Q: What sequence folds into this?
């Protein structure tokens, strides 16, 4: 029975099927909201699923100069990593599938997903992909600094009073919030979650921070040469990453929500994920033109890092 329960958690909820479903619904809803803000009808909410199926049915074309094995294999490595990452995040206060999770481990796993896209672009030997991978590296350098500041602020507050003075365990962070209240309402952590809202769209590669793909400039950039099932894997990775980042925000800053009814807790966290998607992705997408690469770097290393650093200082000073 225990084995069946673990299999259910990994394959169904909050695992594979739930991750994919939530990622598709979040991205589809984001596209619909942006269309409405621009006075368009927009695609169906499940359009990302249609796109995935369409890519799966297309021929996979490998460029003549590409490193075939890496080119074809790396999209599935990235998809496997992001699907595994979601299992490290406690969803609605539920017991973690992979036991104790660590924010540092999650940070590295998310970085590996981006690295997989860079490796795939390099393996294609395309000049467009070469421009895209250089932009992807700049974007990674841009958002990692404020992301680390946010993690340190949350770890410090949740670990207050412990021997180490901080904790990176998401399970402990959620447990602390259930006892002391959600960090979302903590005055010192308001700058931290504001900075996190800016980190999310660049981590995912959403407009206006999608400098690595930029269809109108560099023909999809990192994905310029991909087609068929490998492209479908990258598209699905993008959807699941959206869910991972929104659910991570919910665990880090809204982990104190506990109504005593598990189903209601799940529904509340799902609503939080959609709210985070709307504020951090749909609104900027509908309101802003795409940033230039140097603008992304400057914006994150000045404004966003500054906000995150203020939150870290406030927490460290005990406010």
A:
């Amino acid at each position: 029975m225990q084995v069946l329960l673990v299999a259910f958690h990994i394959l169904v909820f909050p695992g594979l099927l739930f991750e994919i479903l939530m990622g598709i619904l979040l991205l589809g809803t984001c596209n619909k909201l942006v269309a409405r803000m621009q006075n368009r009808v927009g695609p169906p909410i499940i359009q990302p699923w249609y796109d995935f199926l369409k890519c799966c049915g297309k021929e996979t074309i490998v460029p003549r100069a590409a490193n075939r094995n890496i080119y074809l294999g790396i999209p599935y490595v990235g998809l496997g990593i992001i699907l595994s990452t979601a299992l490290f995040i406690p969803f609605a206060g539920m017991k973690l599938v992979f036991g104790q999770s660590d924010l540092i481990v999650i940070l590295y796993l998310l970085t590996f997903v981006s690295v997989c896209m860079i490796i795939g672009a390099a393996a294609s030997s395309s000049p467009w992909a070469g421009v895209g991978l250089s932009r992807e590296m700049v974007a990674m350098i841009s958002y990692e600094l404020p992301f680390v500041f946010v993690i340190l602020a949350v770890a410090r507050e949740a670990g207050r009073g412990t021997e180490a003075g901080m904790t990176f365990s998401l399970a402990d962070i959620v447990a602390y919030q259930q006892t002391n209240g959600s960090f979302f309402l903590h005055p010192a952590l308001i700058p931290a979650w504001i900075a996190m809202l800016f980190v999310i769209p660049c981590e995912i590669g959403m407009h206006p921070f999608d400098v690595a793909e930029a269809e109108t400039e560099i023909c999809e950039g990192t994905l310029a040469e991909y087609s068929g099932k490998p492209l479908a894997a990258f598209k699905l990775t993008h959807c699941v990453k959206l869910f991972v980042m929104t659910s991570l925000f919910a665990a880090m800053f809204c982990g104190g929500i506990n109504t005593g009814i598990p189903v209601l807790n799940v529904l509340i966290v799902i609503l939080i994920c959609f709210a985070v998607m709307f504020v951090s992705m749909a609104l900027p997408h509908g309101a802003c033109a795409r940033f230039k690469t140097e603008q992304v770097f400057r914006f994150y290393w000045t404004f966003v890092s500054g906000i995150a650093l203020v939150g870290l200082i406030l927490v460290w000073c005990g406010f």
Observations:
- The mean pLDDT is 88.
- The CA atoms of residues 143 and 203 lie 7 Å apart.
- The first helix runs from residue 2 to 11.
- Residues 2-316 form one domain.
